[in-house]
Specification:
The protein is an alpha+beta fold and about 240 residues long. It has seven helices and ten strands.
Length: about 240
């Protein structure tokens, strides 16, 4: 069961020009606070009076119910929190996610980029395979979580290039699957830094095409153990990757 909550937020700004105001900053602030996934949309309607409608997906029930008290939101959008804001859970969800992690203390984590049907979460539990909501990732990793999320977004863009742009297909698939590519070197570095920060193993999810997947690690070539998770078939304890 997923904890995602697709939501419509309606605000009533004094003008339709919201680009450089707190009205226009609410949705990105919610995202950067780790409270909603990044595929939000916002449109200003100007009928009798301006209405700003934001369509977003809160990461879980806690984020949905307590977003107003989040310190990051209060810092960047304090002036509008006391204004009229209507919130309604939408009937038809924009997107769904796999299970949220409910483990109190995960033994290890998995870092993976966006793309391959994984467009939102970038950190997963190494015990139950459930995703970590964004705000929980920020609580664990602080400023480093933002850098890792930017890397995850870049990974998703490379995936889109592979799927949609024939001229760059070879370059994109090499970036995604070649361990020595700039994309994967950065991902491995972030996984290592995150692991050192929390003093636990943070596995790196390395994309490997099915036809190239063997029990030999793509990095050190040693024989690997079978993975206990859905998705990756093997794990290498030496390189701290799953693939």
């Amino acid at each position: 069961m997923t904890d995602d909550i697709p939501t419509q937020i309606t605000l009533y700004p004094p003008t339709e020009h919201i680009e450089c105001t707190q009205w226009g900053r609410l949705a990105p602030t919610l995202y950067h606070a780790g409270l909603i996934w990044h595929n939000y949309e916002q449109i200003v309607y100007n009928t009798d009076k301006p209405e700003l409608r934001i369509w977003c997906i809160f990461t879980d029930r806690n984020a949905f119910e307590n977003w107003r008290s989040n310190s990051f939101v209060k810092k960047h959008c304090s002036d509008i929190l006391s204004s009229a804001i209507d919130i309604a859970v939408t009937v038809t969800p924009m997107e769904k996610h796999e299970n949220v992690c409910r483990c109190i203390n995960s033994a290890g984590l998995i870092l993976r980029g966006h793309g391959f049907g994984n467009k939102k979460a970038s950190v997963y539990c190494g015990d139950c395979s459930g995703y970590y909501p964004g705000y929980r990732v920020k609580e664990l990793f602080g400023d480093l979580s933002t850098q890792a999320e930017v890397w995850s977004l870049i990974s998703g863009h490379v995936y889109d290039i592979w799927m949609l742009t024939g001229e760059l297909e070879e370059w994109a698939v090499n970036e995604l699957s070649e361990p020595s590519s700039d994309l994967n070197k950065s991902g491995l570095q972030y996984a290592s830094q995150l692991g050192k920060l929390i003093k636990k193993t943070v596995w790196y999810y390395l994309f490997t095409p099915d036809e190239d997947t063997t029990e030999n690690c793509p990095i050190c070539k040693s024989v690997c153990n079978k993975s206990k998770w859905d998705g990756p078939k093997f794990l290498c304890k030496r390189c701290k990757i799953v693939y």
